[in-house]
Design brief:
The protein has 98 residues and is an alpha/beta fold. It is 34% helix and 11% strand. The protein has a single domain, classed as Phosphatidylinositol Transfer Protein Sec14p, CATH 3.40.525.
Length: 98
């Protein structure tokens, strides 16, 4: 899973989102993390780093081990072949039509 945080700012955040995030972390730690091999977070600005550090407290060790925080989408090329990355992420892949 790749999560691009570019453009995420304080205006996108609310206390309701924080409470939802805390509940979501419980679900991710208990169920979802066993189904995903890796999570990549890219383009994190200072606000995203702050929020990440808050939620990191609620993460289990298995989830932390599967999480990679990258400074830019260019770093994704170290983990994925171009055809497995969307063009928006620096690859050659396209999203299949529904």
């Amino acid at each position: 899973m790749i999560q691009d945080r570019e453009g995420f700012a304080f205006a996108n955040y609310s206390m309701a989102g924080k409470r939802f995030g805390e509940k979501l972390m419980g679900v991710l730690n208990d169920i979802y993390i066993h189904r995903v091999a890796s999570v990549f977070m890219v383009n994190m600005n200072w606000f995203s780093w702050t929020i990440f550090n808050v939620f990191k407290v609620f993460m289990g060790s298995e989830m932390k081990a599967k999480l990679s925080v990258l400074t830019s989408t260019d770093k994704l090329k170290d983990y994925f072949t171009p055809e497995n990355l969307l063009k928006e992420m620096g690859g050659t892949g396209v999203m299949p039509a529904k």
